[in-house]
Description:
The complex is a heterodimer of chains A (235) and B (632).
Chain A: E1 3-7, E2 10-14, H1 20-26, E3 50-53, E4 56-59, E5 70-72, H2 76-92, H3 107-114, E6 131-132, E7 138-141, H4 150-158, E8 164-167, E9 174-177, E10 204-206, H5 219-222, H6 225-228
Parallel strand pairs in A: 1-5
Antiparallel strand pairs in A: 1-2, 3-4, 3-5, 6-7, 7-10, 8-9
Chain B: H1 8-21, H2 29-40, H3 45-55, H4 59-68, E1 80-85, H5 88-92, H6 95-106, E2 119-124, E3 136-138, E4 141-143, H7 148-159, E5 178-180, H8 193-200, H9 209-216, H10 225-236, H11 248-257, E6 266-272, H12 281-288, H13 290-304, E7 306-313, H14 321-333, E8 350-355, H15 365-372, E9 396-400, H16 401-413, H17 415-419, E10 429-436, E11 442-447, H18 452-458, E12 464-469, E13 475-478, E14 496-501, H19 506-520, H20 526-543, H21 549-565, H22 569-573, H23 576-584, H24 586-590, H25 604-607, H26 609-615
Parallel strand pairs in B: 1-2, 5-11, 6-7, 6-9, 7-8, 10-14
Antiparallel strand pairs in B: 1-3, 3-4, 10-11, 12-13, 12-14
Helix pairs in contact in B: 1-2, 1-3, 6-7, 8-16, 10-11, 10-13, 12-13, 13-16, 19-20, 19-23, 20-21
Amino acid sequence: xxxxxxxxxxxxxxxxxxxxxxxxxxxxxxxxxxxxxxxxxxxxxxxxxxxxxxxxxxxxxxxxxxxxxxxxxxxxxxxxxxxxxxxxxxxxxxxxxxxxxxxxxxxxxxxxxxxxxxxxxxxxxxxxxxxxxxxxxxxxxxxxxxxxxxxxxxxxxxxxxxxxxxxxxxxxxxxxxxxxxxxxxxxxxxxxxxxxxxxxxxxxxxxxxxxxxxxxxxxxxxxxxxxxxxxxxxx
Amino acid sequence: xxxxxxxxxxxxxxxxxxxxxxxxxxxxxxxxxxxxxxxxxxxxxxxxxxxxxxxxxxxxxxxxxxxxxxxxxxxxxxxxxxxxxxxxxxxxxxxxxxxxxxxxxxxxxxxxxxxxxxxxxxxxxxxxxxxxxxxxxxxxxxxxxxxxxxxxxxxxxxxxxxxxxxxxxxxxxxxxxxxxxxxxxxxxxxxxxxxxxxxxxxxxxxxxxxxxxxxxxxxxxxxxxxxxxxxxxxxxxxxxxxxxxxxxxxxxxxxxxxxxxxxxxxxxxxxxxxxxxxxxxxxxxxxxxxxxxxxxxxxxxxxxxxxxxxxxxxxxxxxxxxxxxxxxxxxxxxxxxxxxxxxxxxxxxxxxxxxxxxxxxxxxxxxxxxxxxxxxxxxxxxxxxxxxxxxxxxxxxxxxxxxxxxxxxxxxxxxxxxxxxxxxxxxxxxxxxxxxxxxxxxxxxxxxxxxxxxxxxxxxxxxxxxxxxxxxxxxxxxxxxxxxxxxxxxxxxxxxxxxxxxxxxxxxxxxxxxxxxxxxxxxxxxxxxxxxxxxxxxxxxxxxxxxxxxxxxxxxxxxxxxxxxxxxxxxxxxxxxxxxxxxxxxxxxxxxxxxxxxxxxxxxxxxxxxxxxxxxxxxxxxxxxxxxxxxx
Lengths: 235, 632
């Protein structure tokens, strides 16, 4: 009973209710994404996974597949737009890849490589964001947050804890934690939480374990993100 | 009186009272937070402690919601919270000088709280008083027609800690300024008569499928009335007055045909979150003919079989809340709301008013629904659309204030009558909120198809350079286009009509609008969150005289990105004012470009402004002499 749509000219089968992203992943086709994670309800905020459906831009992680859809993804136009969004994420926060513990395992960095991003292009915003080292096991470095809300969804939907949420609005949107002090050390967060495993960038970091994997053997040293998209990041 | 050092028990008492009034219902979170703040002057941590317990929701959820809305404060903002409206018309009317005067009078720095915790002075987006500006809000109560004398008087009142309720009443008097009235504003309307007409209307000859369906589902037993009413709305050719112009009859029919799950009901929402800068016609409709609007909602409920309604009133119109609640109460007593309306068994419908709290994006219907559910006002992923999955996942129609007012008249006078007014594809009349450079700003109601020039003539505008129609997300009309017509065929509009004469700098108009979009972006999607900030920075770069042709290319690229990648209409339209003014008023941009080559955005002298502020110096010696100079 399977239907198909075409993705960059190739037929892709899907089952009723699947999104374009899900169907593409199942068929082994990579669509860049940051806020999408196969284990969670799609959010549709980063817009990296935007494709053209019958000529119209739409986020593939939230758009249900339909028979006969004509979907474009790997075009120069769309990849240029994705590249610009990636650049926006870089200048919005403070991302210093060479000194970042997550370097080589970071989906933002790997996506930038995948899209051929050669510079940040835009002026950096250099926001002033404090780190939170209050938790005995985990460091929060908000400088790298891209507001994908994966930790929010993991803590809420899997851990049942609501440790994280987004507050503020617009460019002042930011991650908050569930404590009157605003400190992670005052929450019931633990390293075993699902929310500790899902950060695509370097915000939620296990303490005393930085740079554990040598350069050359890190996740994205071994294979580009387009080849590893379906696997869940394990730290 | 509420103070910052209020005891936890006192706060808990306030919270408990407010929470009880809202049925301990977490979906009323925005209303609960707003009322707690009205009592406490801000939302202290003790209040959040208590809300966590009484509502059973995590702290992150409460803080996430509070942090989203501009008018909700999780830090003390003073006993008197003054916000100057900062629309371009307020600027033209001299709001900056007034704000400086108030700050100087009260020894307070803009955006900060005075050291004694008494007062804060800041700015906010358009408060909908453009025809009687400059406007401002004090503790969310609106004031217009500000002058230096008025500001001095206000400073005295604040310094002497006079409670807001004891301020002179005329400070808070808001005018309707109706300059041209047509079928809506002239309607000699008796509450209830549209409903009676709808009930009496026999089914038209062609009973359609949806009609039969409503019978099966046991909609109010006006028998035929609901379907006939829907037919009249369709026959009228009524289109949504919020700007997009979607056919009202189709929306209502889709909602009425949407299946209900067990325990669900259909919902009617009136979008009174009139946030588009330069628009104020919904304020006048709600103040002058609230019965017409509410009756229109009731007609809608009757037509689609809805039992619950909301008016989502923008926070800036807080002063209308008590009056509107009184109208609702009166209508309940007249059996025009509540159970068995007009004696029709099963015709049950009631309305609750929710206030917004300073978030333009909540005018987008799915963001509005999120806010009604007590959440951050982030537009939803669509499909599904609200007509099938709206408020609490129930079939919901969201219509503009003016749409409902028109619907009431259609129910009363019939669709054919209405379709005969206006143009072929734009039936009926449109209320225009006229402001800016003209002799008679105010509300003008015209049949669709009126020319821009006619409106300019009628309101006494001379020497006009441009008109911004439908606000920042609309279009900027230049002189050679003044014969264009208001209507969905040519210039669609939600109602704003802002006039700029030849002395105005159209670059500053566009820059003001860009700052507005940047401030109002909800932050959900990357392109709008970051893109509106990048656009603001580019416009500021031009403003400071560091622009080059490169920046034009950048603006063009950002525009394409925002249009194609943004999550909702806010991002799609954020570049409109810039692109329009570049296309039509290029000299305003060119004169800011010191040179055609690259000029760095970094200006050493401007970077020293923080140091100058700290040392209280602004003399020549505190400035670097730079080649291009820093102008501001």
